[in-house]
Amino acid sequence: MLTRRVKFGFGIGDLGGNLFFTIIGFYLLFYFTDIVGLNPALSGTAVMIGKVWDAITDPITGYYSDRTKSRFGRRRPYIFIGAIFSFFFMIQLFTPVSFAKEMNLFLYYTLVYSLLNTAYTLVNIPYTALLPELTDDYHERTILTGYRMSFAVLGTFAGAALVMPIVNATSWPVMGGVMGGIMLASAMITVLAIREPKEHPKPGEEGFLSTFVEVLKEKVFLQALLPWMFFITGTMMIQGGLVYYFTYIYGDEALFQVALIGLLSFSLLCIPFWVAVSKKIGKKRVYMIGMSIMSVGVLLFTTLGATFGPIYGVVVMSLAGIGLSTHYVMPHSILPDVVEYDAHTRKKGRREGVFSSIWTFSSKIGQAFALALNGWILAIFGYQGGAFLPRTKPGIILIIGPLPILWYLLGLLILRHYPIDQAFYKKMIERDE
Question: Which DSSP string do the residues of 56-106 spell out, in sequence order?
């Protein structure tokens, strides 16, 4: 059994991670268009390039962290170094600069954002790979993931609720420093609290490319990976679009903060409930139920939100958090089971870092595509930073509702075929004992 120190120390590491992802998801496109002054198409493209670069570095980090040997472990040195650089580049990203040519502004922020993502990759990939190394118990992994996702929701909550108050009280660079400092502190607590196993199963002998090609041929992995990527894409589109919806359709930017607090509060409160339910009906079923609830909430928000007004919108988005809660827990609890399945079927060494890096790679591709698509659609419908036109309204609705629901449906159709439940897992473990 894992100690409370290990559970707490591991879990708090994702506070900084989701703080970062929330700031990027909810505010970066808005920061580029309305604060820096980039047009929406270039803003979306800058975010996409940064995220794609981020995704490319994930498999490289995962592959080499699997093969790292040091007296501090094979994951923690990366987390330590990456956290320090993440703090520095958070301040750089959120320090507005100006150039005579818009293209130079675009290139500058694309570079800084790419460097920030590279730094955080050094934290996030090794951190994700820690989970299957800490325990091989089916339910304990869900409990450990519950700790992690409770802190993740707190990080998301802080990122959503504190950014604008800090900016309004001080400035964007100060906000970057405060949030970067929280990211740094949470990563360092994980580094100090966790003790990695002294002995690690030897990783496979395959080369870099052949390792990833082989993993991507694993059907069970794809049945978990693709839904995760589609759900990420839909959720990121909603996150990136909500601030525009509340600011320009409801005419109340401050109410956006209230909606976020409601959404994330319900997500946080429901995590223990869904963890308990998963023991009864399984992780896959819980995940499907949760994302179905989220889909219905988004549908009700976009079809009736303008009719019933902003209070209705806040209530519906808050209740949608009941479903979104499963997205914080279940996929990260499913991934270690897939890693275990791979190890037991191949019998050629473990590949936690490879699976974790592909998992994160796919999520970042989803994020990149989602935010780029938001920017491109806003540009198509004539949006210019700070200047809302009536013809932009359908574009904002499109990125909040119909397109995210499409991604959710695709994910649900694939996830229903994922085979690993408790009985499957138990039989697999017993077969090799």
Answer: HHHHHHHHHHHT---TT-SSHHHHHHHHHHHHHHHHHHTS----SSHHHHH
